[in-house]
Amino acid sequence: NFPAGKPLDIQVPNFPADETKGFHQVPFASTVFIEKTDFKEEPEPGYKRLARGQPVGLRHTGYVIELQQVVKGPSGCVECLEVTCRRADAGEKPKAFIHWVSQPLGCEIRLYERLFQHKNPEDPAEVPGGFLSDLNPLVFNRTVTLKEDPGKV
């Protein structure tokens, strides 16, 4: 029940803590992606994000979503969530506001472990053999894919 026939443009601050640094626009459409950790089918006490009977706000939009149905694939894993979307009332304040992205761009991120084993590899008291002897032999680099909002490009 997306409230508009076409995607809406939402103004999002470049730096939420300092709105003087400008804004960018992101599309808000009928399909949104949220972080996996922002939903639990069986929430533990104190969990404040999206769950059955627990609506959440979509950050910067002024809209609230509420879970209607969990769609699972053949393996039993959650594939998508069907939600209703409504404008947040002035008196209604959801327990949480979650990050989201709609019409995302795929991007590749490289994550790296620390190169050295100690905080100060050049300190002879901490690393007597010099910085080359302090290289981390288990440096693990991995590449992950993320969905990013197109307004940041």
Automatic annotation (TrEMBL):
One of its GO terms (cellular component) is cytosol. Residues 97-137 form the tRNA synthetases class I (E and Q) anti-codon binding domain. InterPro entries: Gln/Glu-tRNA_Ligase, Glu/Gln-tRNA-synth_Ib_codon-bd, Rbsml_bL25/Gln-tRNA_synth_N, Ribosomal_bL25/Gln-tRNA_synth, tRNA-synt_1c_C2. One of its GO terms (biological process) is glutaminyl-tRNA aminoacylation. Keywords: Protein biosynthesis. It holds the Pfam family tRNA-synt_1c_C2. Residues 1-85 form the Glutamyl/glutaminyl-tRNA synthetase class Ib anti-codon binding domain. This is Glutaminyl-tRNA synthetase 1. It comes from Jaculus jaculus.
